[in-house]
Amino acid sequence: FEALRQRIASEPFLFNGVPLQVTASFGVTNQPADSLQEALDNADKLLYLAKNSGRNRVEYKTIPSHYLSHH
């Protein structure tokens, strides 16, 4: 997601022929969740953390894959 964020920020977005600077923030998690809604809520909280921490950021909360595969 970091590479995508950087790519978005580095490419001008043309609107009616006018180049605009566009940035993106992402909330990314692989936390187990009991429902799709809970998973989306977790990612949404991280998205708002990214925006409130200065925008144009990626906020991660990950659990190592070896832990997920054994528990």
The number of strands is 4
Task: Please identify the structural class as seen in this structure.
Answer: alpha+beta
User: Mean pLDDT across all residues, rounded?
Assistant: 87
As a percent range, the share of helical residues equals 40-55%
What does the main sheet amount to?
2 strands, antiparallel
Number of helices: 3
Uncertain parts: none
Can you write the helix and strand succession as a string? HEEEHEH
Major β-sheet strand ordering: 1-2
Radius of gyration: 15 Å
Our estimate of the beta-strand percent is 15-25%
The N- and C-terminal alpha carbons lie at a distance of: 26 Å
Shape: elongated
Write structural notes for this entry:
With 71 residues, the chain is of the alpha+beta class. 45% of the residues lie in helices and 20% in strands. The protein has three helices and four strands; from the N terminus they run αβββαβα. The protein has a two-stranded antiparallel sheet. The protein has a two-stranded parallel sheet with strand order 3-4. The mean pLDDT is 87.
